[in-house]
């Protein structure tokens, strides 16, 4: 149950539902409520003061999480919406999931584990800024997968160099330095479209 309409909390609820079902904890459902009322078999997601948790943080931009889960249910609390998403991935990691690298082929999801078991986590990020910068030659699929992977690995930011990241996309789509592929054509307009899509993916996760 999510206690917020923030995009990152919405995604956190969907991701928790998706992975728990894949692990054999299902069937699970996602719902939204305005107030926290503990119920057996229910996991609550949100930020203070909606939840009875106090993730330690000096300011709302600094990530902190508190996870309390047992066989009956529990909650994942974050200092901000992004922290809730990070907290969900930390819970799933405690249950055996791994995200070794960006992309579907980099994730490990244990099958048939029966789902939840007791988990207690209280963490505060050591650094305010934890990000990756676009570099080299990148495709849309490359940067999309990296942004999806960031909160799974505890990062909170993605840096798009220049206003439309033209140079990095251009190298990929024009096959610069790759004699095995014919030289393509890439425009500023296409770079702007890809950058808008990339910003949407970043925003959905509450990343900087």
Describe the structure.
By secondary structure, the protein is an alpha/beta fold. 31% of the residues lie in helices and 16% in strands. The strands form three sheets. It has a four-stranded mixed β-sheet with strand order 1-3-2-6, covered by helices on one side. α1 packs parallel to α2 and α3 runs parallel beside α5. The radius of gyration is 19 Å and the shape is elongated. The two termini are 25 Å apart. The model has no long low-confidence stretch (mean pLDDT 92).
Short description:
With 208 residues, this protein is of the alpha/beta class.
Q: Key features?
A:
alpha/beta; 208 residues
Indicate the proportion of strand residues. Answer: 15-25%
Percent range of helical residues: 25-40%
Category by helix and strand content: alpha/beta
* Net shape: elongated
Count the E strands. 8
> Ranges with pLDDT <50 over ≥5 residues?
none
Major sheet: size, sense and barrel closure? 4 strands, mixed
Using the CA coordinates, give the radius of gyration.
Answer: 19 Å
Strand order of the largest sheet: 1-3-2-6
Instruction: Indicate the mean pLDDT.
Output: 92
- Helical region count? 5
| Topology order in helix (H) and strand (E) letters | HEEEHEEEEHEHH
């Amino acid at each position: 149950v999510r206690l917020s309409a923030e995009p990152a909390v919405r995604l956190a609820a969907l991701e928790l539902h998706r992975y728990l079902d894949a692990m054999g904890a299902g069937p699970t459902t996602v719902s939204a409520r305005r107030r926290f009322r503990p119920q057996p078999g229910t996991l609550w997601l949100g930020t203070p003061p909606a939840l009875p948790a106090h993730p330690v943080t000096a300011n709302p931009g600094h990530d902190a999480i508190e996870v309390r889960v047992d066989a009956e249910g529990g909650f994942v609390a974050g200092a901000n919406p992004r922290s809730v998403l990070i907290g969900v991935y930390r819970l799933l990691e405690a249950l055996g999931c791994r995200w070794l690298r960006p992309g579907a082929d980099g994730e490990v999801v244990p099958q048939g584990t029966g789902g939840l078991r007791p988990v207690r986590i209280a963490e505060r990020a050591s650094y305010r800024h934890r990000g990756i910068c676009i570099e080299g030659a990148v495709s849309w699929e490359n940067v999309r997968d990296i942004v999806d992977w960031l909160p799974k690995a505890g990062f909170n930011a993605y840096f798009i160099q220049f206003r439309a990241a033209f140079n990095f996309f251009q190298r990929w789509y024009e096959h610069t330095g790759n004699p095995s592929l014919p030289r393509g054509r890439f425009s500023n307009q296409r770079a702007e479209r890809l950058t808008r899509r990339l910003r949407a993916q970043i925003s959905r996760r509450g990343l900087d």
